[in-house]
Specification:
Order of helices and strands: HEHEHEHHEHEEEEHHH
Oligomer: single chain
Shape: globular
Number of domains: 2
Radius of gyration: 17 Å
CATH architecture of the largest domain: Alpha-Beta Barrel
Length: 239
C-alpha cells in the first residue's frame, strides 16, 4: 500500500456489475474459460458477492477465482462459495504481525489467517498463497510462510518483487505467472480498460469500442514480452 494512500476515481467512471458481466460473457463466448476477480482489494467493493454470482452463471467458465488480501475473507468466504466462487488466492508476505501491519499500512495478519481458515472450511480450494520475496524463497519471512502452508495444506507461490515502471519481473516460483512466452492473460480494469499485458501501457476501452472490438484489439496487441507500465500501480491493477 503506498504510504501516501491511493488515488480515488469517480464512481461513475467505474464499471457496473452488469458491464463487467456483459464483457465476461463475450470473452467466454470467444474462448476464455478462466476468470479471476482481483484488484486492488475486491472484497471492499459493495456487494461483491452479487458480481461473483452473476459471473458464475455464465456457461463455459471452468475456473472462477479471486485474489484477495484476506482481511475480510472470514466474513465473506461462505457467501462467496455459495455464490459460485471456486477458489481463492490470498496475498501473504509475512506472518509477523508488526511487519504485516507496516507493509499493508495497518492490516491485521490474524484476520488474514482466520480468513484462510474460513475459505478452507467453505470449500474454496485449493487455497493458494501469494508471497512476495526480495530474491529467493529461502528468505526468513518466505520460509515462515512456506512452513505455515505445509502445516495447513495450502499451495504457496513465491513472487519476486516487481516494479511496473522499470519493467522488473520474473517467473513465479510454484506458479505460471511471469513467463511471457506462455502468457495468455488479459486484464479488465475498474474503468473498463482491457489490457493485454501487466507490464505495458496498452489498453482498449470496452465502453468506447464495445466488448467484442476491445477484445479483438487486445488479443492482437498482446506484446511478445512485458516492458513497462507508467499508468498503473499494483495497488489498483493487481498482479
Amino acid at each position: 500500500m503506498p504510504e501516501e494512500g491511493v488515488k480515488l476515481i469517480r464512481h461513475e467512471d467505474i464499471l457496473t456489475y452488469d458491464e463487467i458481466t456483459g464483457f465476461t460473457r463475450v470473452a467466454v463466448a470467444a474462448g476464455i474459460n478462466k476468470v479471476r476477480i482481483t484488484g486492488g482489494e475486491p472484497l471492499v467493493r459493495k456487494n461483491v458477492t452479487a458480481l461473483v454470482r452473476m459471473i458464475s452463471e455464465i456457461e463455459g467458465i471452468t475456473d472462477l477465482s479471486m485474489t484477495t488480501n484476506g482481511i475480510f475473507l472470514a466474513d465473506y468466504a461462505y457467501e462467496l462459495a455459495e455464490a459460485g466462487l471456486m477458489r481463492v488466492n490470498v496475498s501473504l508476505d509475512t506472518l509477523d504481525p508488526e511487519k504485516y501491519r507496516y507493509v499493508t499500512r495497518g492490516g491485521d495478519v490474524h484476520a488474514v489467517l482466520k480468513g484462510i481458515e474460513a475459505a478452507q472450511r467453505a470449500g474454496l480450494r485449493p487455497v493458494k498463497i501469494n508471497c512476495v520475496i526480495k530474491n529467493s524463497p529461502g528468505e526468513e519471512e518466505a520460509r515462515s510462510v512456506a512452513e505455515y502452508c505445509v502445516k495447513e495444506g495450502l499451495e504457496v507461490r513465491f513472487i519476486r518483487q516487481m516494479d511496473l515502471e522499470t519493467g522488473t519481473f520474473s517467473v513465479v516460483h510454484g506458479g505460471s505467472g511471469g513467463h511471457c512466452a506462455k502468457c495468455n492473460r488479459l486484464r479488465l480494469t475498474p474503468e473498463g480498460m482491457l489490457r493485454p499485458c501487466l507490464f505495458s501501457d496498452i489498453g482498449f476501452s470496452i465502453r468506447e469500442l464495445g466488448a467484442e472490438e476491445a477484445l479483438r484489439r487486445a488479443v492482437a496487441a498482446k506484446p511478445e514480452k512485458g516492458s513497462v507500465n507508467h499508468i498503473n500501480g499494483f495497488y489498483n491493477i493487481g498482479g
